[in-house]
Amino acid sequence: MRRFFFDFREGTQVCPDLDGNEFTSAEQAYLEAIKAAQEMWGGLLAERRDPRQCAFHIRDSEKNLLFIVSFMELLESCRRSVDVPVPISPTHQAIVNVQHAKRMKEEISREITAARVGLREAFGLISTI
User: What does each of the 129 residues of the chain score in pLDDT, given as a tens digit?
Assistant: First the structure.
């Protein structure tokens, strides 16, 4: 597990995360930041604060800035338009690509296992002839 810090920025004010949270990867930290931003959106509106001015600055255990999760990104991802593609950050796209690659790897592994089982059965049948 690695420790990540979610510094909260609202406009020009930054509230540093002094404790951090442990995650297995930067990808998981990013996804948790998106989830936290979604959960905070309504509360910020209820307090008459503009969530579009907010972001998480995700830092590693050495306090290096890894990426910024802008709450505005949530709003942009809700837009649906045939003419205008939804802009997503390069970090978000990379994570989507990694998740897709993991699913494909798992699917290929299942197919290879099934093929090996089939080959073993075939060799077993051939050996009885």
Answer: 999 999 999 999 999 999 999 999 988 999 999 999 999 998 999 999 999 999 999 999 998 999 899 988 887 777 665 555 556 677 777 777 777 788 888 888 888 888 888 888 888 888 877
Decide: 27 and 85 in contact? Cβ < 8 Å. Answer: no
What tokens appear for 46 in the block? 């209820």
Q: How far is CA 10 from CA 20, 50, 109, in A?
A: 18, 8, 45
Contacts of 38 (CB under 8 A, 6+ apart): 74
Which letter, b or e, does each residue of 86-109 get, where b requires 16 or more Cβ atoms within 10 Å of its Cβ?
Answer: eeebebbeebeeeeeeeeeeeeee
Question: From CA 43, how far away is CA 24, in angstroms rounded?
Answer: 28
